[in-house]
């Protein structure tokens, strides 16, 4: 277990001067670090902890891919160095061979021998981008090396005067591979051109080499080894082997020869650092700004020439930090033996992590992990802030040690930042399981080489370390071949991160622009090579045995040539390689293991192996895709490639056309079917586990959850039934039918459960019948079982269950009714509901099925008593009984009025049940009589019922009651006295004698008075009012309706002072008796209490009547006067008439109309037309000057016509005196007259002369005297 520490050898930031200022960086993790030397728990605590750890799911899964590297191990060769960058893996061997392979198929792309001795390190430039996995809609997978975006060129000039290089991802043909070897050579080989190669001899074993990220432009690389020199090499001649010119003499000679043109461009070597022992590792950062190297004294970081502004030209190759080696025992001797491992991490391609232990970092910050000996460092490097105020020196960069981990039981043989919070360490163990040191030497130089090492090594371990507190999250032993003969320097660890698979349709939208740009730039050749190097992977989508599983396979060209596109056989691909997420490749000289993060399918397998079926089922339910990946993993190995797994050659348009397809419904259905099968399989295992542990109740709940619509229901229900665990499984059995599809369970299963509960648990039976669809079982079979129990008296109607009499019997009867309904026998069901007194169900059934006419007359009493229990029938008041029976009675009323049921039969059936049901006969007859089953409407008598339209239903109901009038009289008299009185007044069909006898028995005096008055015994009725009721007001009212009783009333009342006083108070409003008569009949000397007040009241009442009479007379006179005034006004009102013009009217105006018999006196209807004279019938004209006389009746006359047609002066009488009087009148009125008798044929012309006001008054008076002479008004209307 590591510890997080910061010791004496903390990181030192180096200023430009030779004096270094030490800077120790600490954080919270250092204060809370753990160390292996801490006391460990012992005893049972260790065992408990081990047990607990065993139950934790591992983070990683492993697989050997040694077989994919078979070409590497030919002729007894073994690997010595390897690097994994992007989609390429380059392996160097102890024989000096270099192999380039492509992921994911591990297909060999290029193999060459670059050295005569062991290859010690490998470097690639430029760094290829991580491959992209594109998942097609049919499950096929394309493994593409998509080109990354090109970085914009920096405008700054390099220190040497050239433009600053631009770092970008290049096509595979532009990649260079540099290798170093113990033979002292560095080989730089182009993968695209086998002739583009450099071989440089440094005369000493070279342990590390690192190409510039922009080697294609600047031809620069760094190297170092046993000589202890960090050498910068720039340039070099291609295709030849050259010697390094690191010595001053050699460099001077090379420079002199070059100046005269004889140097041959052999390149230039510059020693940047030396004198601190063997250099183990050199690495350029991902941005190219920083370079790290490790020698025997510690870790060094310096600024490179890339991306350096011109003003900072002096900072090139300047060291910025140094972390000294730990000052612990063993380091002095082993610092030169232990090989340091360095890795620059890329946070953009790392997996997201919930823990963020390092806080916020700028985009220019870079992270470096270093493993060396028993120590691991995590560093952050960032640009400096220029000149510092306290020292005056320029700060080129800053490096901070964020974590430093110390391991006490191992040596770091490989290191990688697995996630931002998790460090992966390949541990070469120095202590065994009992914490004892491993014997033997680990120094290969002392052991006589790798073939003569003592076989004391242990299996290496891959440990996941929490970088925050140094805790070991997971430790896995790796089973490597010949591990016992290997040392810590023999292991190699490389990492690769694959992003989540991209859907083909998304790729078509997002990457189309990038791919087309690459096509344009390469003239189509690069895109051809790109598509020809893809991977087509088809995975199965279900567990169908008939469907042959397909394999993961790859198809590509065998060389890097741009025109090589021949098809080659597909090779199988291991599924772990194409899974998204981080991957670790751990290599030894004889073996290779791939470690990947466990996914959901692995977790599913893990929980199933540990019989955690609940979690497994939940996992499949929440993540259905895990089933598909599980199938793919199971089918990826030992399967032959199918035709669908071969990539198709074609152009870029064809690729995007294929990507545009979508999943078919059949594929989706098969996927869903596979998921359901897997869930069912896990569910069965889960149920078996619960039943084996006797957890029946939980097993029932799980069955309802996991079985769904599976046919396995039958097996599990029978399993529960055989164990008599009906209660545990019954609530979860499918309760509804699947419609047109076949039912999940056979009907016998449901029938078995129901028949069990018929005898075992009747309440549960009722619940099941409420829930279960009747189509699930044979209804007739269950009906027969229930009828058998009822006929046998099991249970009996009197049995008591849980303190409730007849509970089980009632439940069975109601269940039988439900089954009858399901069987299409509603009448039988209604009979059952009536027997069990289930009023709601019975009434609803009657209304839905219209079954009132099917009720047997003998069942009518039971129907009415649906809501009335035996106890309530005995003790409840009548009002409550009426409320309880109102609904059944209303249905009976409806049927009675409809004619489907006889009212007499209803009352007869109720009467046969005895006196206990007499109230219900009353309710029934009252409802018929009043038209309502309630009591509110019956409270008002007919005397006070408002007038309304004829109600046929009410009339028919009353007619039915009057058919049983005597029965109604008895019941109304017994239960509703008000209704009794109403019935007596409204009906005439009852027996008066019986009614009177009943009233005498019950002492109903008002009712008896009414009956006596109806049969003519008015005097007896009056005496009952006076003697029994003593009600003076009622007696007087009764006498008012019978005038012959006044004398009897007065005679009978004269010796009763109270009646005398009442008479005096009431007689004032009676017109049939004289008040004075009452006073005269009062016996003398009779003391009458309140006589004075009575007489005063009588007098006041008489005065009041007289005052009222006077007021009425005044009102009458006022109304007469008003009428006269209205008449007068009407007479004064003007009369409207029309005037006309025309030749006829002009002629009439000129005197051509005739008076007398020849004149048109009437219209065809006998009346003068509007605008015409009522006498002559001539039309009026505006030019006529003769006076016109109009009347209220609407007739208008010429003055002459009005005079001539008076009774005394009609022309037919030849009254010359009248004519003479007319002439005189006209003369007086100012007319110049010339009148000739109509018989003579002469005409008359009258000329009106203008008059003064006095003349006008005289004119009006004369006209009035003429009109009023002998008669008033219009001659026609007179």
TrEMBL record:
GO terms for cellular component: HOPS complex; late endosome. Residues 45-57 have a biased composition (Acidic residues). Residues 173-305 form the Vps41 beta-propeller domain. Signal peptide: none annotated. Residues 1-64 are annotated as: Disordered. GO terms for biological process: cellular response to starvation; endosomal vesicle fusion; macroautophagy; protein targeting to vacuole. This is Vps41 beta-propeller domain-containing protein. The lineage of its organism: Eukaryota, Fungi, Dikarya, Ascomycota, Pezizomycotina.
